[in-house]
Amino acid sequence: MAMRRVAFHGRHLLSSPHLFRRHMNTEPMAALDRIRNSGLLKTQGLVGGKWIDSYDGKKIEVQNPATGDVIASVPCMGSKETTDAISSAYSTYSSWSKLTAAERSKALRNWYDLIIKHKDELALLITLEQGKPIKEALGEVNYGASFIEFFSEEAKRIYGDIIPAPLSDRRLLVLKQPVGVVGAITPWNFPLAMITRKVGPALACGCTVVVKPSEYTPLTALAAADLALQAGIPPGALNIVMGNAPEIGDALLKSTQVRKITFTGSTAVGKKLMEGSASTVKKVSLELGGNAPCIVFDDADIDVAVKGSLAAKFRNSGQTCVCANRILVQEGIYEEFAKAFVKAVQGVQVGNGLVEGTSQGPLINEAAVQKVEKFVNDATSKGANVILGGRRHSLGKTFYEPTVVSNVNRDMLLFKDEVFGPVAPLVPFKTEEDAISMANDTNAGLAAYVFTKSIPRSWRVSEALEYGLVGVNEGIISTEVAPFGGVKQSGLGREGSKYGMDEYLEVKYVCMGNLKET
Ligand code: ADP
């Protein structure tokens, strides 16, 4: 169990090497066979506990980004299927929300146990459809499962309040009640964890859910949903639809039965969903893009800074919203850091995630590679230097070389926007004030990282950073027990921890009056 809590980084995962050895160099077909044999290769949507195709029979193909091969086809659903999924969630809500907290907790705990039991198959599925190395995929399964475990426990702690009354014949109570049916829209970069950290607290609170996973990675979502059914989560409490994203999104937004939208994905789509939620005044949680600064001060421990920046930058091929997007390095340590960092990045092994030793898989698609190319070209045309990588990888397809770009400044796309790829821009700075000003010079505000040995400076800088998460001398900070979420245009609300429950609860005030005996 040592590898459970903190996700994604090889360091933690190495504590359980036998798990990986079993997977090493698995051929994609053998991996798929293994998943099929376990019964977890589900290729239909889930509505009201029934596996269904799209009503018009249309399908979409799911590809392995490492090979370009089609893994499976899933239904291309739209508004009709979504409306039915909402109805099923709505009718199940009345029974699920009335169960005792202990009953809901037990079903969630069963689900957690089943995810852990099938962690190897789920990890293979994640690597096949998303591309991340199997070690990271296993890390994601453990991380994803941890939300179900944590919220199965939190289900029992939805306490209300009794408020001292201003009048002696009254008693004032506060009840916390589930918000109702939830529409959850999730991205492809964490095919399991982005779902469990929404569905876990939603079900724990008594809500029912319609999930729309990314069309790039629906298979993990469907496998997880199958395990939820096996665990005793009632049919209709968790529904999965996928296909035409804007149609599904609109059906969720239009419905008066859907009381909450929770979304992880791009800032542009998040804004649309927030706008679309206005007409029915839904509760909204958004986890949107980041532009994480990673500040390395002259007084940092260089080994800690290199290790932390490497982990924060290259996890999932740079495709996470908390990935270090700008590595700001103080002048006095710049050359030494750049040298040590390049050396560390040279150790990143690019390849198919199923192959032993791979630490960087492909990017999700061609558009992602083109975006990376555009950002690197923009930087070099404005005076930055590529000091490592800087090209598509010789493996072809959507593989890109682990890249370090030096002398990046505020005018470059690499500074202004999220590159979402394996490119580390190094930005020199002079003073602490400069670093804070550069770090905050963005509309995003999700994660930030600081490397320094000074305790006063760590406090000062952590407090000055306009970000929802700050890692001090640590590059991997996500855990189910801490609140995850952004400020500014990185989003609304928090996921994980006790705060993650509030997003799925309404506060009801009950005033009991005329209590004096007559
Ligand atoms: P990314 O660039 O990471 O794929 P997106 O925001 O495009 O980010 O996708 C995140 C999720 O939002 C995916 O499930 C995608 O299908 C969904 N999505 C995209 N456009 C819309 C839309 N108009 N309405 C609802 N969901 C959408």
From TrEMBL:
Example of a GO cellular component annotation carried by this entry: mitochondrion
EC number: 1.2.1.24
Enzyme class: oxidoreductase
UniProt-annotated location(s): Mitochondrion
One GO biological process term: gamma-aminobutyric acid catabolic process
Pfam families reported for this sequence: Aldedh
Active site positions: E287
Subunit structure: Homotetramer.
Protein known as: Succinate-semialdehyde dehydrogenase
The organism of origin for this protein: Rhynchospora pubera
